Amino acid sequence: MEFTADDAEALTKVLRWRRDVRHFRSDPVPETTMGRLRDAMALAPSVGNARPWRVLRVQNSGLRNSVRLEFERCNAAAAAEYDEETRSEYSALKLAGLAAAPEHLAIFTATDPAAGRRLGRRTMPETLHQPTAMAIHTLWLAARAENLGLGMVSILEPARMERIFDVPESWEFSAYICLGWPEFTDDTPLLHRVGWQKNQPTEWMER
Amino acid sequence: MEFTADDAEALTKVLRWRRDVRHFRSDPVPETTMGRLRDAMALAPSVGNARPWRVLRVQNSGLRNSVRLEFERCNAAAAAEYDEETRSEYSALKLAGLAAAPEHLAIFTATDPAAGRRLGRRTMPETLHQPTAMAIHTLWLAARAENLGLGMVSILEPARMERIFDVPESWEFSAYICLGWPEFTDDTPLLHRVGWQKNQPTEWMER
After folding, report:
1. In chain B, % of residues over pLDDT 90
2. Any idea of the CA torsion for A83, A89, A92, A95, to the nearest 10 degrees?
3. Which of A77, A147, A156, B172 is the one with CA 20 to 30 A from B99?
4. pTM of this prediction?
5. CATH of region B20-186, choose from 3.30.390.50, 1.25.40.10, 3.30.530.20, 3.40.109.10
6. Which residue, among B124, B165, B167, B194, would best test binding to A if mutated, counting the most A CBs under 10 Å from its CB?
7. Which chain A residues touch B137 with a CB distance below 8 Å?
8. For residue B12, what are the CA distances in angstroms to A73, B144, B185?
9. How much of chain A exceeds pLDDT 70, in percent?
10. Which CATH superfamily is domain A25-193 in?
11. Is the predicted pLDDT of residue A194 greater than 80, yes or no?
12. Cβ–Cβ of A1/B187 closer than 8 Å?
């Protein structure tokens, strides 16, 4: 396989215009599109080819409601830890699109998968969590290339999420994903636009 | 920004043909290409836009040698834990391209970055490690689209890596990356070809 300059350019475009979306339209994502996203996510790398990510597609409204309450609880607790000025800035941020997003995915990591036969994770158990993050990133890019938006919600208590979804003991909560059509397309990420955190340079250092 | 079917197809092609490369040619990667990879990696997502990944470009031969010795030590210890049959299978695997790869990157995660102002990581400190994994994945895809190969080495003891590179107390070792031109292009990932671990289906479950 030989990649062309056009391929590299398309990839750069997806990377550059990837956005963390929190404003969703509520109309559904076609099942064929969801199928393509599922296939794309399955292409993510994993140490020993262990493929430890576990995906629950959440459609039950009771479960969705439990997640929203858990987010609100954690978000209020996070806000309370800032000083007054930062708190009002924080509280004005829209940090999740749980109410409108048509698709919700709860993502867990299996911490003792048989697949991979333990290769590459003896000294670094973290290598099971890294593939899950890469799989989420794969989904993110694939969704963006379909003109969909994705938001990753982490203002949640892992132990509570594991209880809400009653997952096996060995699964650890990794993230909750909102997916759908973005309500608007902006060229500036939300946290930049509202001034919470601009880009810091990420220099490479020589050794 | 509206993505076309061609964009989605180019992305899928890069995802599908991404490979974990361990066989490198030793000729150098042009500095302009390295610059593009650096720019691509900086486009990775991060919670609160904290951008916690830290990249050391390792050119010092003494440091490279220390890493190779550390890999050999950990690899021998990992091999020793398997039963005899699996051990001979394990030992036949080529798990790193440290000797030939022209570019080595040591990747760490800053666990207390000022950037991001703690947003989104109160309940999940893991959200600082997830962006580093996503940044590595971004580099992986960008390298592949330039027809370069990348190998991620994790058979290393994090505490030793932190000591070898004498990094700040708050940095945690995430991965060691080998980068360069692949010696050959194969259409089957190494662990499949040698029969260590074939793909397991990664079904999405409904809830």
Report:
1. 66
2. -80
3. B172
4. 0.93
5. 3.40.109.10
6. B124
7. 44-45, 133-134, 137-138
8. 38, 12, 18
9. 99
10. NADH Oxidase (3.40.109.10)
11. no
12. yes
